[in-house]
Write a structure and sequence with these properties.
mainly beta, 1 helix
Length: 128
C-alpha cells in the first residue's frame, strides 16, 4: 500500500491561487492513475480532477474546468493541483488518491471507489 501526503493548503482570498502537491511513497508513481477529490463543509466528498498514468489524459469537475490544472512528475513522485481564480465554493478538504487499476472510461477516473489509496487531506479555505 502506497502512502500519499498532501501539502499546500491554506487560507486564500477569492480570486487568489494555491498549488497543492501530493507526494507518493512506497511505490512507483507511474503505475497509478491519480486524482484529487474534495469534501466541502457538510457535504460528501466529490471528484475534482484526475490524470492518467503517463499524464496524457486528464478530467475535471465542470465547476473547476479552466481554473484548475492537474499535473504529475513521475520522476519526483508528485502530483500537483494548480488552483486559480478560487471561489468561496472551493472551500474544502482536498484529498489525493491513487488507483492501480487500469482505467479506460472517463467515469472510472471520476469514481471514488476506483482509488484504493488516499491521503489525509489538506484544508483549503477561500475567504475574504
Amino acid at each position: 500500500q502506497v502512502q500519499l501526503v498532501e501539502s499546500g493548503g491554506g487560507l486564500v482570498q477569492p480570486g487568489g491561487s494555491l498549488r497543492l502537491s501530493c507526494g507518493l511513497s512506497g511505490g512507483t508513481l507511474s503505475r497509478y492513475a491519480m486524482a484529487w477529490f474534495r469534501q466541502p463543509p457538510g457535504k460528501e466528498r466529490e471528484f475534482v480532477a484526475s490524470i492518467s498514468r503517463i499524464g496524457g489524459i486528464s478530467y475535471y469537475r465542470d465547476s473547476v474546468n479552466g481554473r484548475f490544472a492537474i499535473s504529475r512528475d513521475n520522476a519526483k513522485s508528485t502530483v500537483d493541483l494548480q488552483m486559480n481564480s478560487l471561489q468561496f465554493e472551493d472551500t474544502a478538504v482536498y484529498y489525493c488518491a491513487a488507483s492501480e487499476q487500469a482505467l479506460y472510461r472517463e467515469t472510472s477516473y471520476r469514481t471514488q471507489h476506483r482509488y484504493a489509496s488516499w491521503g489525509q487531506g489538506t484544508q483549503v479555505t477561500v475567504s475574504s
